[in-house]
Each structure stands twice: as structure tokens, then as C-alpha cells.
Design a protein that fits this description.
The protein is of the alpha/beta class and 390 residues long. Helix 14 crosses helix 15. The radius of gyration is 21 Å and the shape is globular. The two termini are 23 Å apart.
């Protein structure tokens, strides 16, 4: 999905329908990777696949189809396409028609949590899994991860930390207005009737690509080695906008970070530790600015910040998140997506009565680690620098 075929597709979409109208119809953050621009690229290239296509299924919906023969689209994954009307929970067919996109290939929408059916006979025979029911959980991985956040009450924030950093809160209805458009946030479907008001932030992708480049250059490093080097090099000497376009595609990421710093008149990090420190601190600064915008949209303070997913194992980044946001951080569980999937299966089959009960079960089942905010000199100055860069 990071392929260059969608270059220029957002601009082409805005020539057909204004940015404001697209956001009003979908409430989804504008990102070049969205299915809306993938499909538009296919239309403009007269892709022969579209001429024979019968049904468009997102990957989890496709897996469910292979297991059950049921062709439906679960709401949480459907919402991320930028095809869905978040108020009605149905495809925004009028918008798609104005954009020149086919709508006959879109399947019915289902809410997260239904039993789709039994395994197909040939699947059951091949696997030996007789009598197994297939449930559509929160099929978007972040929807399942957020379901597993071990939160109490409704005023927490969550950060699903991995290749992407998805930071937000749960709401009962979408927030679609001029302020949320200006903040470029997203109103994605959540489980149990919730909306995930969040921001997609480029997460550990940058450091993952740096690690790959260092290994290719003959310097393989473990994650522990990179984190230790970053901690020793702090405070960082520069700030980058992790969402800048030059960091989106694979490639020489260390060179791109250094080039960004040079272009913006900042000291250029010349060691692994110095460069990693720039990336980690810049991520934590982005968390602070994003959380402030989301709190402004909801009118409430969000605390604590729950960090789940693979990135929750990075204790340095967890502490930086606490320090820069000024919020207590609770890190864990790591396998939140799988856990949230299981919770939705338990809800579907009656083993759990509510999402709150499921989260209570998560709190009792998995260890978490707490991080309290600590003073960070020049925090506000660095935040101001980030605002200048974005």
C-alpha cells in the first residue's frame, strides 16, 4: 500500500469532489494509502481487474469468505477505506459515484461481533476443525487492539504502537466538523457501537527502516542495542516531523532523517544513538500535539494513556510518551489485537456480557507496566519546533 501508484490520487480526488465534502461524507483522515485512492488509481489506469471484479473484500473479510463463503464487509475495516458513511454505517454510494468509483462491487456491511457461520465443509474436512463457528470480530487490527485496552471508565486515551502509532479516544458518535477536518483526524468504526476518534501517526516504521538500512550496511543491531544507544544520546539534538512525506516509502531512512535535519537548519545526527534519539523524541512530541488536538475536539482530558501492541515493549518510548504528554502511561498487553479478537468471539458466543467485562478480564489476565510523567527540559520549546515543521 506504500506503492507509488497512488501518487497524485488525492489531488485528483479533490478535483472531482472537494476535500471538505469527502470528509463530511466519511469522517476519515486523508492518507494516500486509503482504499479510496487505491481504487481511483485503478479507475484512471483502466485496470482490467475492475472490468471482471464481482466483489471488493478487505483482507479480513476475504479470510472470512474463504472460511465461511459469506461475502460481507465488517464495519470497522470498512470504515478505514474512506468509502463508509459513519452516521448510517453504510457505503457512501453518492460520494463514490461522484468520484467515478464502482459501487456494485461493495458487499453488505455487518457490525463487529456476529457469528458468520460454520466453517465450509471442505475447510472443516481439511483442517479437522469440525463444529467451529466463525465470528467477525473488530476486523481492523486496531479495532481489536482498542477492544483489549485494559481501561476503567471512559476518559482514557489509547495508543496502538507498532509500525503505525494510532492515538485516540473512544466516542459514541463521530466528530465531523471544521476543527476535526483541520486536525486531519479519523472517525473509524469501533466495537460495541463505539467510534475510534484517532490520528494515524507514522510510528516505529522509521526506526524499522533505519535498522534495516544499518543491517544492509553491515551493522546488524538488536532493538535493545538501538534503544540503549538512543537513551545514552538523549536529549535529542533535532526534531523531525515523523509524518513528513519523505518518510513514507521504504528506502535509505537514516539518510532521509539526516537530510530532513540539514534542510531545516538543525544539527545532523551522526551516530546510531543520536539518530534514534531524534526519532523517538519526535514520536513522543507528536503524541503530545495529537493528544492535545483530540482533547480539544472532545472537550475532555484523556488520562491515562494506554499503550498496547508490540511497541509497548519499548520502555524508553513509553517513558518519553509519559514525559511529553504529561499523562500517566500504562503499557500492555503486547498482543492486544489477538486478545481483542478473542474478546469479541467471547461476546458473540455469550461467554462475556459486555465490553467492560472483557476489559476487566484483560486487567486480571495480563501484566502491565506504569510510567509516571517526569520533567523534560525544553519540552515546550521542542513542541514549538515541531509545530513549525508541520
Amino acid at each position: 500500500y506504500r506503492d507509488g501508484r497512488t501518487d497524485g490520487m488525492m489531488e485528483e480526488a479533490f478535483r472531482r469532489v472537494s476535500r471538505e465534502e469527502i470528509f463530511a461524507a466519511t469522517g476519515i483522515q486523508f492518507m494516500q494509502i486509503n482504499s479510496l485512492y487505491q481504487l481511483l488509481a485503478m479507475v484512471l489506469r483502466d485496470d482490467p481487474v475492475l472490468k471482471v471484479a464481482e466483489t471488493l473484500l478487505c483482507i479480513p473479510d476475504l479470510l472470512n469468505y474463504w472460511l465461511t463463503g459469506c461475502k460481507v464487509s465488517e464495519r470497522t475495516i470498512a470504515s478505514t477505506t474512506q468509502f463508509l458513511d459513519p452516521y448510517r454505517g453504510q457505503w457512501a454510494v453518492d460520494l463514490l459515484a461522484r468520484l467515478g468509483l464502482p459501487t456494485h462491487i461493495l458487499p453488505p456491511i455487518v457490525e463487529p461481533g456476529p457469528v458468520l457461520g460454520d466453517l465450509l465443509p471442505h475447510v472443516a474436512a481439511e483442517t479437522g476443525a469440525q463444529g467451529v463457528l466463525v465470528v467477525a470480530p473488530g476486523c481492523h487490527d486496531t479495532a481489536s487492539a482498542v477492544a483489549a485496552v485494559p481501561a476503567e471508565g471512559a476518559h482514557h486515551a489509547y495508543l496502538s504502537s507498532g509500525t503505525w502509532s494510532l492515538l485516540g479516544v473512544e466516542t459514541q458518535a463521530p466528530i465531523i466538523n471544521a476543527a476535526s477536518l483541520a486536525a486531519n483526524v479519523t472517525n473509524e468504526g469501533g466495537v460495541c457501537g463505539t467510534v475510534r476518534l484517532l490520528k494515524n501517526i507514522t510510528g516505529l516504521w522509521i526506526i524499522q527502516e533505519c535498522r534495516r538500512a544499518w543491517a544492509a550496511a553491515g551493522r546488524p543491531l538488536s532493538w535493545d542495542q538501538i534503544v540503549a544507544a538512543a537513551g545514552a544520546a538523549m536529549p535529542a539534538t533535532a526534531v523531525i516531523d515523523v509524518d513528513a512525506a519523505e518518510f513514507a516509502a521504504p528506502g535509505d531512512m537514516p539518510g532521509r532523517v539526516r537530510a530532513f535535519c540539514e534542510r531545516t537548519g538543525q544539527p545532523v545526527p551522526d551516530t546510531v544513538g543520536a539518530l534514534a534519539a531524534v526519532v523517538y523524541e519526535s514520536l513522543a512530541l507528536k503524541y503530545r500535539s495529537t493528544l492535545a488536538r483530540i482533547e480539544g475536539l472532545t472537550g475532555r482530558t484523556a488520562a491515562p494513556l494506554h499503550i498496547v501492541g508490540g511497541g509497548s515493549q519499548n520502555r524508553l518510548l513509553n517513558q518519553l510518551a509519559a514525559d511529553f504528554t504529561g499523562r500517566p502511561v500504562i503499557a500492555g498487553p503486547v498482543e492486544a489485537t489477538a486478545i481483542g479478537n478473542i474478546l469479541m468471539q467471547m461476546l458473540a458466543t455469550g461467554a462475556l456480557a459486555s465490553l467492560a467485562e472483557g476489559r476487566n478480564l484483560v486487567r486480571r489476565s495480563f501484566e502491565v507496566e506504569a510510567f509516571e510523567p517526569r520533567p523534560r527540559p525544553h519540552r515546550d520549546e521542542r513542541l514549538g519546533r515541531l509545530e513549525e515543521l508541520t
